[in-house]
Please model this.
Amino acid sequence: MVARPPTESVVHAASSLLTPFAEPAAGWTRRHLLDVDTFSRSEIAQVLDTAGAMAEVLSRKVARTPALNGVTIFNLFYEASTRTRSSFELAGKILGADVINVSGSGSSIEKGESLIETLNTIAAVGADAVVMRHQASGAPWLAARTIPGHIINAGDGQHAHPTQALLDAFVLREEFGDLTGRRIVIVGDILHSRVARSNIWSLTTLGAQVTLVAPRPLLPAALAPGASQREHPLGLPNVRVCANLDDAIVGADAVMALRIQNERLRGKLLPSTAEYARRFQITTDRMAHAEPHAIVMHPGPMNEGIEIAVDVAHSPQSRIEAQVSAGLAVRMAILFLLIRGSA
Amino acid sequence: MTAERQLIVRGGRLIDPASRTDALLDLRVVDGRIAEVGAALSNPTAEVIDATGLVVAPGFVDLHVHLREPGQEHKETIASGARAAARGGFTTICAMPNTLPAMDTAATIDAVLQRARNADCRILPIGAVTVGRRGQELTELAALRDAGAVAVSDDGDAVADNAIARRAYEYLADLDLPLAQHCEDPALSQSGVMHEGAVSARLGLRGQPAAAELAIVQRDIALAEAANAQFHGCHISTEAALTAIDDARARGLRVTAEVTPHHLFLSHDAVAGHSAELLYDTNAKVNPPLRTDADIEACIAALAAGVVQAVATDHAPHAAVDKCCEFDRAAFGISGLESAWPVVNTLVSRGRLSLADAIERMTIGPVRAWNLDTGDLLGLGSLGVGAPADITLLATDTPVTVDPEHWESAGKNTPLAGHLLTGAVAATISQGRIVWDGRESA
Model:
């Protein structure tokens, strides 16, 4: 790992964490975290620096700080989630906020309440921030237009998962420092993946070279080789696309496997699980063609033996557990910056 | 004997594409029909409408309108839709059958015609092709025609089943009714909510590929050719489908088509909005979806060349609640009657289309596409002596900011809100009656 000197904002963030009446997070102007597509390099750096300070808090004997005392955060989850929901909940609690969980089942959502009504209800109860996961792409933008609190996108449909992208960036920065020119390969169901979309934005912004590897039915048509609109002003940034994992993995610094959903593999989008695994599974043999220092990542939950070989998932190259740990620090950083920032 | 009701439209530039007329001429209307066309007309008992500085055109004819009545009167009624038509310069609108219940029997068509009797424009019903628009069994197509249907369609859905579509064309060949097809193969479009392309890739929204439209267009060209029947392509939106239609027409087949103002003007970029505030703009969710810049260019070129005979609005009004929700859940559709002319005229002002062609595609073009000018409607879409006195007065240089809050339509759903366009409808005369007069503001 590359040691990094603390920057000014780290010092500032860390010191303000210690005070019960936290000072504003200096220089932070965003009110919501909807996606990372419009984030600048320095904004991503500020999140990662702050997450570094949060990691320091987490390393203490009593990992608690009152930075968000008196703040109420709603976790509004319309989709199942283990790691994202629990890490947001823990992040809020470690920072001293009150965290309330609302999920699709066991709430008025089950009775057919509309998203707008649920949001208005939460706002009326007094939510300062809403962490939301929703199956409809774009739902957090609707929320940000509807209620006054901070909106944090914890995954919207097939669109964005910005905290995943930021925690991945955190892990990669811990590993390599500056990501300029680093070669990162993302393998799997790009079409349906919000993790891939947000990572494409953050990694290209940080200067990395991103290569997507997927069978054509799992690639957005606009990214297919030869597509007429590959470089559209409102499209995704330009990335390499490769149908052959063996070619793409040569010289890679990091390989990120995406979860493949079983129901998509039963002859509808692809011939079979076995054929997918033969062509696209991250294996020890394939990793041998990557850089010797290359790491393996996966946003979870994994299908071990399908998109990633069991031994690779648990090899020294794997950073999958580090991703989960980084998730907590990054989510603490996001909550702190948004709620204690100047917006 | 009561006195004749007379009206003189004086001092305007009369453009009547049916007779290739473009001259300073007056019109005299007697009892709902055009009685005289000439210079400096006068009559001491006639009401005079001053059209100085305005274009005098035949009333617009819209082949594709959703009136929502019966069944969804919270979105629009026949009366409010007809008022919107009048304000938009339309004097004849064809009502699609996706009402609740669907217009799939002579009785439902008759009920709609009864309710339309006192409306502010002429309403011509379109019957359903299949019972309940479910795509499984043919409706009594001859009975629908005899009740007044001018075409049949399952619009909103294609007649997807190949065998049913084939039998429909064969049966319709004897009835001389066009099949107005919604060209979308559901197996290809799946549950796509926008055009499949660069913007859907970024926004993570399920896309409908252009091939979903082309597949039905090619199939229906083949079926209509085999049956010697008429295939009318509703709201064609892609370059490839327009090329197929152009080829079919060049071979002399009975193939006609319409394009909407929104497909002539907006691309899929509108879903991403023109500001962060409008990202995932549900008012830009429409089926067929807004496509690419190349498709817009192809639609304009096909309209200018006459490959497409009609501008049709696909007026699809919705209540606010139908649009104020997640993009995936929002209703498809754009309220289009009151912005149609400003959009088309803006293309004219940008030199993309001649004024005469623009008017042609909104009057005699659609009338001839569906042979509407027969019987009582002889002369429909023209300003000849004896024609119905359906007249629209147009201001072609007036700047207009689209403001749906002031529309007559109950549907305020448009991605054009706030757009600055050129052109206004100054007044509308329907069957000799002034149904809209906005000359003060135009």
